[in-house]
Amino acid sequence: MSTPESAHNGHGTNEPKIALRGLCKAFGGAVVLDGLDLEIGTGESVVVIGCSGVGKSVMLKCLLGLLRPDAGSVTIDGEELSRSRTAREAAMRKIGMLFQNAALFDSLSVWENVAFGLIQARGMPHRQARGLAIETMAQVGLDADSADLYPAALSGGMRKRAGLARAIATKPEIILFDEPTTGLDPIMADVINDLIVTCTHELGATALTITHDMRSARKIADRIAMIHDGAIVWQGPAAEIDSSGNAHVEQFINGRAEGPIQLAVAHAAAG
Amino acid sequence: MKRPPLQAIGHGVLALFEAVGRLSLFALEATSHCARPPFYPRLLLRQMVEIGFYSLPVVGLTGLFAGMVLALQSYTGFSRFSAESTIPTVVVLSITRELGPVLAGLMVAGRVGAAMAAEIGTMRVTEQIDALTTLSTNPHKYLIVPRLLAGLLMLPFLVLVTDIIGVGGGYLVSVFKLGFNPDAYINNTLEYLEVMDVASGLVKAAVFGYLIALMGCYHGFHSRGGAQGVGKATTNAVVTGAILVLIFNYIITEAFFAQ
């Protein structure tokens, strides 16, 4: 877990919890990441914003080791992930992830989903894991009645909650959120934002969120970074986002069709 | 985009080699995980029930009617030169050596191969496989290994059932329709049957079971692009599974019985 000092100051001289350096990834001829650099301090909550299809998800997949970057390095606690399978597996045990559509396992009930990491990765006995799962579910506002339901019977908001419960059940040091509010109504989105903030604070976890929902970003972030054309074009404290002085950021947060991002959108549509 | 003919041929050949290579690597990796812990006995059991138990009606009916039509057809042919007494032998040898394994294999390829590809494919496109990885669980071990092993173990069982029901179908038609003596039919059935006839069929079944599961898992695991991708994966799993069953049927027959 984080020391109080490092939790306070993510930009300190300490080694960053997560460091992405010079990350490049191309699919066929299409360059998605082009020398992306991002560091996240222990206990810090960073939100990466950007338009659809600029490489936010690819960045997350490289961090998870689901995609192998063409160049650059991904380190967690100073350990290079691509070095070995054991390094990757060790890093994975520190990470919890909330997927965009929650990615709950259809064949398992809600509590089995939440307890999956505890049972499979930690080898916890079923009875104990169930208790802990129901406890975690209560933390995200799911009552014990829904424990035995299957994911197909849940509403979008409940699925997100269950996904969040699964991500935090193993008390990870790092939590990743992939578009946590996409597809939810504004009120439910705010509820999920609040849950994300409380859960990350309670765990003292380092959080990395990718989103294009600015309300969500403002609420969750200590620091916001904007990704465009495969690289970070601006980053700074969440409070400074409105006075960034960066044309990309201003266009994005005001949701204007005109501006420097115009061309890329046209490209993406054509591709 | 139209390519010059020579380039198109080269492209096709390269794509074929690439596909075979990718499949071989996938098969090697999945098979190597069979021997390395952690194991998931509960998942294996569930797959064994899914493949073995729930396929019983399908392969049973297939076997029954295959045996029945075999007796009927052989009778119309063999009665022309008064060789009706060989019908029990023809039925039992055809069923145990060929029809049992091949028909059961094809039915299971349709039923189980498709279901595997659809389930794993849906898990892939809804990020459930990625979620497994983030929960420190190897998707090969958790999803693929139980299915491969269940296919390998349960198809011989299904084929044994098909053999018995198929011979029973031949018996029913011969005794009740064609007027055979029941005792003589059973005697003739057993007299020329050798262990190798049944054993070769069971070896085929094990290989088919592995291949069908492999095709279902491979195509599901590599499906891309939403519902359409899953549909394509399912089709590919059934088609390649069925074709491999027929190809390996010949190869194994050759290995067992070629002089």
Mean pLDDT of chain A: 86
Strands of the biggest beta sheet of chain A: in what spatial order? 6-7-8-3-9-10
Q: What is the CATH architecture descriptor of chain A?
A: 3-Layer(aba) Sandwich
- The fold-level CATH name of chain A is Rossmann fold
Count of helical stretches of chain B: 9
Over the alpha carbons, how many angstroms does the gyration radius of chain B reach? 21 Å
Q: Could you spell the SSE succession of chain A in H and E letters?
A: HEEEHEEHEHHHHEHEHEEHH
SSE arrangement of chain B, N to C: HHHHHHHHH
Overall number of structural domains of chain B: 1
* Secondary structure tally: strands of chain A: 10
Q: From the alpha-carbon coordinates, what is the Rg of chain A to the nearest angstrom?
A: 19 Å
- Which CATH C-level class of chain A is it? Alpha Beta
Walkthrough of the structure:
The complex is a heterodimer of chains A (271) and B (259). Residues 1-12 of chain A have low confidence and may be disordered. Chain A has helices at 4-8, 56-64, 85-92, 110-114, 116-121, 126-139, 156-168, 186-203, 214-220, 247-254, 262-270, and strands at 18-27, 30-40, 45-49, 71-76, 79-80, 95-98, 174-178, 206-211, 223-228, 231-237. Chain A has a single domain, classed as P-loop containing nucleotide triphosphate hydrolases (Rossmann fold). A six-stranded mixed beta sheet of chain A has the order 6-7-8-3-9-10, sandwiched between helices. In chain A, strands 2-1-4-5 form a four-stranded antiparallel beta sheet, with helices on one face. In chain A, strand 9 and strand 10 (231-237) form a beta hairpin. The radius of gyration of chain A is 19 Å and the shape is globular. Chain A has eleven helices and ten strands. Chain A is of the alpha/beta class. With 259 residues, chain B is mainly alpha-helical. Chain B has one domain (39-257). Helices cover 85% and strands 0% of the residues of chain B. Chain B contains nine helices and no strands. Chain B has helices spanning 5-34, 41-53, 56-78, 87-125, 128-134, 139-177, 182-191, 195-221, 226-257. In chain B, helix 4 (87-125) packs antiparallel against helix 6 (139-177). The longest helix of chain B is centred in the middle third of the chain and has 39 residues, at 87-125. The radius of gyration of chain B is 21 Å and the shape is elongated. Classes of the chains: A alpha/beta (271), B mainly alpha (259). The interface between A and B is medium-sized, with 23 and 14 residues.
